[in-house]
Amino acid sequence: MHSSLEYLAERYRITNGKKFRLKDVDPADTGMLKSPEKATELLQHSVQLLSEFQEKLYAQDQWALLIIFQAMDAAGKDGTIKHVMSGVNPQGCEVTSFKGPSALELDHDFLWRSTKALPERGRIGIFNRSYYEEVLVVRVHPDFLEKQTLPPKLVTKDIWKERFADIRAFESYLGRNGVVVRKFFLHVSKAEQRRRFLERLNEPKKHWKFSAADVEERGHWDEYMEAYEDMIRHTATRHSPWYVVPADNKWFTHLVVASAIIETLESLHLQFPKVGKEKLRELAAAKRALLNEK
Ligand code: ATP
Ligand code: MG
Question: Domains in the chain, start-ordered, CATH in brackets?
């Protein structure tokens, strides 16, 4: 890895959430980098590295990578996915965006729709929002929980703790099956969100991105921050860590996410499949035949 990329993501990685406090991460932090120029150069390099790792991941066909993005509106999920994955072969990568659940989805357990979208071996799966909404938006808006029509005796004050435990168990199950899970919370400040909303309102090309519901959710800011903090405290583990990524500067967000993914893929020691003697003989024969063609 490029030396400036190494360890860049490490300081934002939470592997044990017990003592985690959201206020310890500054959304405006840019680490050692003071300006976007150097970051752009590093990002280009990371995109190249990522593409090489992905090729091996695909060829080896053993591991899968699941990348989860959670964030408040306008924190930059879409842009991060677009920039960080720009060099990746679309055949080896699938993005799933999770919106409010359909009637069919509401009729199932809360992990159901996510399990259907899990990446197969050799692939990268990206969740733009995820089952974590079940302890975020659903927690902030109790009427969403009501719509899930759970048996009333199962809905107690412990429901969030129980969901955390279920999520931890699910992710450890995935890990044991070769699906590596990495989770990113893009941590934007309330002031920067306001600036970005206003930008969307002032620029006709960005109008489609704006929805009145976004401002409504902004009204629940503190409740969301509490829910995020509690979620990270209970679901950051060694095998599936959270990265709490400063998101007030998009160029920095992209770089931290890229660096975390590269670090993860590097740790898998991916190898192109080795070809046996038999296969080598077959290849030599094919080459001879092609060279001897008239
Ligand atoms: P964009 O950048 O386009 O705004 P987005 O991810 O915010 O992307 P939207 O369609 O605006 O997409 O919002 C999706 C909404 O669906 C979010 O408000 C999210 O909280 C909500 N949602 C996702 N999962 C669930 C869930 N399980 N239960 C209830 N609401 C959910
Ligand atoms: Mg939205």
Answer: 2-291 (3.40.50.300)
